[in-house]
Design goal:
Chain lengths: 330, 382
């Protein structure tokens, strides 16, 4: 157990080397153990370093910019660090950008709208994904792996390309409208593209695999004899589902839902391409602050505020994963 | 009142409680259960015994309602059950994996079936408490299944299946997951509980000792068919085929030809060695149907053969031989004796005397005599 954790192992190695009853012949093995634990720290250290460099550092840069003032310059924001006449450094930060987000109702509305769209999309993904995952788990033999492959298959094509494909399908002169006109269901094209509907279609389509895969992983471990036991004890299939299957697949539902909800909230490409100007989502606001308005500090504040909104579900996801791992062990 | 009252299957006019008629189950081209018929009587502890893939579990699952028979029918207490779904059958099952609901406490697990039946809350509490007392788990009601030992889980599974007072309790390898000592102890607990509740038990097992200990009757299954149905002693002492003789306990097989026959005995010759043996024909067994010149097989259980260093003058049948192997098991020893007729016999003998010295004990390469009485062997037509 101790060797799993480099810190613990280092400490253990250290105390052993210092222990008075330590005989010389143990020195080599202790040294080897120490070296081994050093290697372990190096190996586990690399991903930490990676995260530090490419995740935490950019975060602090964004945080820094969000606390700066907007300038017409290059870069277009003020420096937090100033040198006064006496040669002393001083730091000047402002929370004006955050205050601005709070005061202008557009931003609040956009956040609420983003969360609402993400929540509804998550629910639709769950309603479609749950029966799909269940059906895949219940499929025997090679067919199961073919079905799983089909779930993952869209990832082989560029995400952007697939969203563009939906533009072609949903456009006024697009495939779906042409087909419906050909069938005689409608006479004039109906507005599908550049609507809330198109955004839902795009998000549900794109994020469905993220719902199905954790559900599949969870359901695969489900012992079918539990459902049989419920039936044997007098539970009709519906009752058995709500009392046994649903509670036992709850970790999968939560994991899948968060995997859809978290990225969907900050989604930019789908609302931009399929929603046009008609759907307010925070990703698009951030993009226009940054590129159209050139207001980097406000854009950064939007990003930081989004992060704060999503920290809670992210922590929840982490806890679900941890408790699942804990349950696997027992 | 004769003692036959507790042996309803011995009476031709007794009404069966479970009646299986020409039942078959096919999975694709594979026939798991092949046109079998069986009557089980009320209060029986019936054992379904067989190796893996013999169809015993499929039969049990058809009784529970998890599998639909391809053809044939099942009646329980006079009602046709063949197409009735599991949740409407008066039958409960104890699963091999126990199938305890991991997200519920022991109490909730046991109460689950009662709740489905719409039993009142206070009655549920009482019945759960009663059954927990019976399986000696009163202090464990609030625990989750993963906080219990294997033996405790087994008892929760039993309690959960019994609390609904089913007409029939099906047990799928109930003791397979327990270690040997616990298994022996639990066997007797199961028999006690069956006795107390009077519920008809159908037990599936691959363990012949378990089947022998537990069951009132055993059905030995192979390739989807019953090879023999009978009381444990009947199956052991009068195996119908060589397969059964070998499957239940161990046996020595001696190919012989009937050369002479009188009222109570037959003379049988082992042709390669010209050696003649005597066997009694005093019971219903098929040796009475043999005719002169017919081939048959003598089946001899290892414990029915005597072994000694000196000739066994009391035995009608005797062979000389040499001990090739000895397995000392404490209470008894098993010997493999290479006999004068070229056949190796397995013989077991109790170790009645504490071994005093090398000279007394039968050991490797010792010349020995083995012998058996005329009523020790079973004759099978071959």
């Amino acid at each position: 157990m101790a060797t799993k954790d480099p810190m613990v192992n280092n400490a253990a190695g250290g105390t052993r080397a210092d222990a008075p009853d330590n005989r010389p012949r143990n020195l080599f093995s202790n040294a080897a153990r120490l070296l081994q634990s050093r290697w372990q720290s190096v190996i586990t250290g690399i991903p930490f370093f990676w995260l530090l460099l490419f995740f935490l550092a950019p975060f602090f840069i964004v945080l820094k910019i969000s606390l700066a003032e907007s300038l017409i310059a290059s870069p277009p924001f003020s420096n937090l660090l100033h040198w006064n006449e006496n040669g002393f450094p001083s730091i000047k930060v402002t929370i004006d950008n955050f205050a601005y987000l709070w005061e202008d109702s557009l931003y609040i509305r956009t956040y609420v709208n983003s969360i609402q769209i993400a929540l509804i999309s998550t629910l639709i993904c769950l309603l479609i994904g749950y029966p799909m995952a269940y059906a895949i788990v219940r499929t025997e033999g090679t067919a199961r792996y073919i079905l799983l492959l089909l779930v993952i298959l869209p990832f082989w094509t560029s995400f952007l390309l697939r969203v563009y494909a939906w533009m072609g399908l949903l456009a006024d002169q697009g495939t779906l409208n042409s087909f419906l006109i050909w069938l005689g269901v409608i006479e004039k094209p109906i507005r599908l593209l550049y609507s809330q509907f198109a955004v839902y279609v795009g998000i549900v389509y794109s994020y469905l695999p993220f719902m199905i895969l954790p559900l599949y992983a969870n359901m695969e471990k489900l012992d079918t004899s539990l459902q049989e036991a419920a039936a044997d004890l007098g539970a009709k299939p519906v009752t058995g589902f709500f009392t046994i299957t649903l509670p036992l697949t709850a970790p999968g539902i939560l994991a899948g839902s968060l995997l859809v909800f978290i990225p969907a909230t900050g989604e930019f490409v789908i609302p931009d391409l399929l929603g046009g100007g008609n759907v307010l989502m925070i990703g698009r606001v951030l993009y226009s602050e940054f590129n159209a308005n050139h207001d980097w500090p406000v854009a950064s504040a939007v990003a930081i505020a989004l992060l704060i909104v999503l920290v809670l579900p992210m922590m929840l996801y982490h806890r679900v994963q941890a408790s699942e791992a804990e349950r696997q062990k027992s | 009142m004769t003692q036959d009252a507790s042996y309803p299957w011995r009476q031709p006019d007794a009404t069966p409680f479970i009646s299986i008629k020409n039942l078959s189950k096919q999975f694709g081209s594979f026939t798991a259960v092949d046109d079998i018929s069986l009557d089980i009587y009320k209060g029986e502890l019936f054992g379904l015994l067989g190796g893996s893939g013999c169809g015993k579990t499929t039969l049990l699952r058809m009784l529970a309602g998890f599998e639909t028979p391809t053809s044939g029918s099942i009646f329980i207490d006079g009602a046709e059950m063949t197409q009735v779904p599991p949740y409407e059958r008066p039958v409960n099952m104890m699963f091999q994996s126990y199938a305890l609901f991991p997200h519920m406490t022991v109490e909730k697990n046991i109460a689950y079936g009662l709740k489905r039946d719409g039993v009142g809350r206070s009655e549920i509490t009482d019945r759960v408490a009663d059954i927990l007392k019976m399986v000696e788990l009163s202090d464990f009601g609030k625990r989750k299944p993963n906080q219990l030992s294997g033996g405790q889980r087994q008892r929760v599974a039993l309690a959960r299946a019994l609390v609904k007072r089913p007409k029939v309790l099906l047990l799928d390898e109930p003791l397979a997951a327990l270690d040997k000592r616990l298994r022996e102890q639990t066997q007797f607990e199961l028999m006690n509980i069956q006795d107390q509740t009077g519920v008809t038990f159908v037990v599936v097992t691959h363990d012949q000792e378990e089947a022998m200990t537990l069951s009132t009757r055993i059905a030995v299954m192979d390739a989807g068919k019953f090879m023999q149905i009978g009381e444990p002693a009947e199956i052991y002492e009068n195996p119908a085929t060589q397969f059964i003789a070998n499957f239940i306990g161990s046996a020595n097989f001696l190919p012989v030809t009937l050369i002479d026959k009188n009222q109570s005995t037959v003379q049988l010759q082992h042709e390669p060695s010209q050696k003649v043996f005597t066997a009694a024909t005093d019971h219903k067994s098929p040796e009475s149907e043999l005719t002169t010149g017919q081939q048959s097989t003598m089946v001899l259980r290892p414990e029915k053969i005597l072994i000694d260093k000196t000739p066994l003058t009391d035995c009608q049948n005797q062979l000389a031989g040499v001990v090739k192997e000895v397995a000392y098991l404490g209470k008894l020893s098993t010997y493999r004796v290479q006999t004068e007729i070229g056949i190796t016999f397995e013989v077991t003998a109790p170790n009645q005397i504490r071994s005093q010295g090398i000279g007394h004990r039968i050991d490797w390469d010792d010349p020995v005599h083995i012998g058996w009485n005329d009523n020790s062997a079973v004759l099978l037509q071959s």
